[in-house]
Write a structure and sequence with these properties.
Distance between the termini: 28 Å
Strand order of the largest sheet: 1-2
Order of helices and strands: HEEH
């Protein structure tokens, strides 16, 4: 696939993404409260130079309820 302005390589974003693992809620059988089966990704889009200012503004506006206290997108 030829590179264009709409595609990003994951390696470019990797330094700005953090993964945390925890127990998930809801039904799940015997392992529901013992195994870390939920993954939460936090994307520090504000610090990422690849994300344009207009896109950052749209993220802030559209996903306000998904922003953590430190401004990362969950």
């Amino acid at each position: 696939m030829p590179p264009d302005s709409q595609s990003l390589e994951i390696e470019t974003l990797r330094p700005y993404i953090q993964a945390t693992f925890s127990t998930s809620s809801g039904p799940g059988g015997q392992n529901v409260n013992k195994v870390n089966t939920r993954v939460t990704l936090h994307f520090d889009f504000e610090s990422c130079p690849t994300v344009e200012d207009a896109v950052k503004s749209r993220i802030r506006r559209r996903y306000a309820t998904r922003l953590s206290a430190d401004g990362r997108l969950r």
